[in-house]
Amino acid sequence: MERQDQPLDLGETELPAGEEQEARREHDADAPRTFDERNDIPERAAHRARLLPEESAAGSEDPQAQAREVLRDSDLRTELPESAPDTFIERRSSDETAT
Question: Does the global pTM surpass 0.85?
Answer without folding.
Answer: no
